[in-house]
Q: What sequence folds into this?
């Protein structure tokens, strides 16, 4: 457990990346729940040496833990990352991912973003590495009115989208 000054989600995640020593990295918000077999199932996807990201589906739950939806992901082709991001949004359920730490290198979460910092980082990785989708829910993702993604303001949303567009012609 590492406690730091509150400087936002991206800063906390960057601290975790800087201190990580394992071969793989996952992140999980405090209000979400990993199913008991999550890490084991994700690790199985790395039996293919070219795979750098393994991700899954997730169940949406409300503030009390009751099911309210299902977010299905798909197998992603890195050559379509830019198009997918423009048409749909993030190609993964970001909270479900496990990433080889070696491919992250010096890429860090953008601390200027208040929302979408995970999507921003994931897209920068996904354009260059192969991924594998596990077609089952491995995370319970909590949706509630306190979630930043449920109440973005226009400026935060603009910065998120602009950071993507700025990198692409």
A:
């Amino acid at each position: 457990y590492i406690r730091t000054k509150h400087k936002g989600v991206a800063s906390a995640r960057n601290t975790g990346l800087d201190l990580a020593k394992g071969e793989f990295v996952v992140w999980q918000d405090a209000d979400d729940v990993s199913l008991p077999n999550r890490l084991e199932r994700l690790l199985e996807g790395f039996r293919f040496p070219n795979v750098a990201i393994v991700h899954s589906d997730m169940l949406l739950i409300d503030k009390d833990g009751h099911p309210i939806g299902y977010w299905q992901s798909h197998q992603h082709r890195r050559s379509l990352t830019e198009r997918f991001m423009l048409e749909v949004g993030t190609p993964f359920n970001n909270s479900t991912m496990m990433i080889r730490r070696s491919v992250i290198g010096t890429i860090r979460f953008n601390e200027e973003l208040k929302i979408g910092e995970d999507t921003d980082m994931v897209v920068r990785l996904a354009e260059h590495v192969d991924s594998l989708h596990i077609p089952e829910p491995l995370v319970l993702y909590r949706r509630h009115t306190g979630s930043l993604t449920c109440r973005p303001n226009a400026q935060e949303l603009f910065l998120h989208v602009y950071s993507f567009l700025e990198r692409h012609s």
Observations:
- Residues 154-166 form the longest helix (13 residues).
- The CA atoms of residues 40 and 138 lie 10 Å apart.
- The chain is about 30% helix and 20% strand.
